[in-house]
Design a protein that fits this description.
- The structure is a homodimer.
- By secondary structure, chain A is of the alpha+beta class.
- Helix content of chain A is about 35%, strand content about 30%.
- Chain A is built from four helices and three strands.
- Chain A has a three-stranded antiparallel β-sheet.
- Chain A is flat, with a radius of gyration of 16 Å.
- The interface between A and B is large, with 54 and 54 residues.
- Strand 2 of chain A pairs antiparallel with strand 2 of chain B.
């Protein structure tokens, strides 16, 4: 079974209140050094079988018609997911 | 200026109503073939200067303490962003 990842972010010129709230909260948690935070969306679409060009084309159509609002958001990536991209980052948990 | 990308997804065993709604809507738009959709979050954190190991370590701390809810979400990736990952996917707009 294959998976396609679609990444959607608010356009650079659009205000991102969620990101701003996170950027404001980080120093209060003692996490310094980040000058800006922007929050977007990440979709994982599963298909039976392999991720072919036709599947990617369908995913692009989904990305622009349903998964993003083209007035305020950019589709930044539509790509086949690697196995590593689908699993929790355990290295990251170990260092946290 | 460097950027760190943090990807957060609902844990596999957690119900994802937003993803389910999208999966149900796709065939109504004539987009067939996707068996499951899951929706997560993607954060872009900006830093002055380069993305060092210390910056990644801070980003991991942010990912687990503020950007995700460990009860229902997994941090799937904390990594330095490439230039291509920060821009709108124009190839994708051309084919849409």
């Amino acid at each position: 079974m294959g998976h396609v990842i679609v990444d959607v972010m608010p356009k650079p010129e659009i205000l991102d209140p969620q990101g701003k709230a996170i950027a404001g909260a980080l120093p209060k948690l003692g996490i310094e050094g980040f000058t800006e935070v922007r929050q977007g969306k990440r979709f994982v679409l599963a298909v039976d079988g392999e991720v072919t060009d036709a599947v990617l084309s369908s995913a692009r159509e989904a990305a622009t018609t349903l998964l993003s609002n083209p007035v305020i958001e950019d589709v930044v990536s539509v790509r086949e997911a690697t196995a590593a991209e689908l699993e929790a980052d355990t290295a990251q948990e170990a260092t946290a």
